[in-house]
Amino acid sequence: MLRRARITAVSLLALTSLSACAVGSNNPEEGQSKPAPANGTDPALSVNNPKNLKGITDACQLLTPEQRTQLGVSDDKDFESLINDVYQEPSCEIFSDAYNAMIDINANNGGMAKLHAGKDKWDNFTPTEVAGYPAAQLDAQSILCRVHVGVADDQSLEVYYSKNAGGTPEMDDPCGFAEKIAVEALKNVP
User: Fold this and answer.
1) Are the CB atoms for 1 and 9 separated by under 8 Å?
2) How many CB atoms lie within 10 A of CB 79?
3) At 85, phi and psi to the nearest 5?
4) Cα 48–82–93 angle (5° rounding)?
5) Could you say which DSSP state residue 153 is in?
6) What are the tens digits of pLDDT across the range 35-62?
7) What domains can you pick out in the chain, each with its CATH number?
8) Would the pTM of this model clear 0.90, i.e. be above it?
């Protein structure tokens, strides 16, 4: 009887070991960690389909007239092309009764890896994804939010959103609407 219990225990141990190895997919590479890219970027922050912001000289041109109407700001006087004080790159300020927003191009000052490296200086830093690109929501509050979207390993498109009054119920979600603006602008980035 003791011998049968030992054989059963050894058999169960062997089966358990084999089944533990078989859990998951048949892909032998799955479960192994991916090597970091040569440039040292965290694979979670790596951009698979990079875009290039370097040739954009007017950030307001990232929104077509149709997109502007969808976003509730269709009058040309609602937009002002600027140069961002921090990056010294193109920026677009959007004014409306319902909200104000800023679209900033960051083509020369680091992408998401640099942003994540300094994430402790931001309030409410929340990694996310926008239109398949790595992103982060920063400084989120009840009426404002910043969304940074990595469009290349070293470039980002940034939207700062602040709710005023009125508008659609969708505009009451600052991070959600900032992401909506970003999604529309990304459609026009080469």
Assistant:
1) no
2) 21
3) -65, -35
4) 75
5) T
6) 334 445 465 678 889 999 999 999 999 9
7) 45-186 (3.40.1000)
8) no
